[in-house]
Amino acid sequence: MAAQFDDERLIALAARFERDDPRFARAMSTGRPSRPREYRRTGAWWALAVALAVLITGVVIPDGLLIATGLVLAGMAGQLFDPHRPRGRRRPYRR
């Protein structure tokens, strides 16, 4: 009885992994796991590099708009490094 309950829980867990992060689930089934989605930060590094390039350009060419844009982009890139940020847009509940 307990083994059947455990099997059902494992099947439900595997289905949730497949739904939440299909790339990670496929990698686990082949035996070569990749990093889970919340730890993949390639896009965040690119955003930070672009932000720093804009910021440095704004400092070299004394332009306040470029400096402000670089600082805003750096803040946005910093948010991308948060592993617990919500995914996708969620609509507010309406009655």
Number of strands: 0
Global mean pLDDT: 78
Distance between the termini: 42 Å
Radius of gyration, in Å, reads 21 Å
Q: Proportion of β residues?
A: under 5%
Number of helices: 4
Q: What does the overall shape look like?
A: elongated
Query: SS-based structural class?
Result: mainly alpha
Which regions contain 5 or more consecutive residues with pLDDT less than 50? none
User: What proportion of the residues is helical, as a percent range?
Assistant: 55-70%
Which H/E pattern describes the elements?
HHHH
Structural features, described:
- The protein is mostly helical and 95 residues long.
- 67% of the residues lie in helices and 0% in strands.
- The protein contains 4 helices and no strands.
- It has helices spanning 2-20, 22-30, 42-60, 64-80.
- Helix 1 (2-20) crosses helix 2 and helix 3 (42-60) runs antiparallel to helix 4 (64-80).
- The termini are far apart.
- This is DUF3040 domain-containing protein.
- The chain crosses the membrane at residues 42-59.
Main traits of this protein?
single chain; 95 residues; mainly alpha; 2 domains; membrane; transmembrane helix; DUF3040; DUF3040 domain-containing protein; transmembrane
Q: Mind sketching the topology for me?
A:
Elements: H1 2-20, H2 22-30, H3 42-60, H4 64-80
Helix pairs in contact: 1-2, 3-4
Protein name: DUF3040 domain-containing protein
Transmembrane segments: 42-59
Keywords: Membrane, Transmembrane, Transmembrane helix
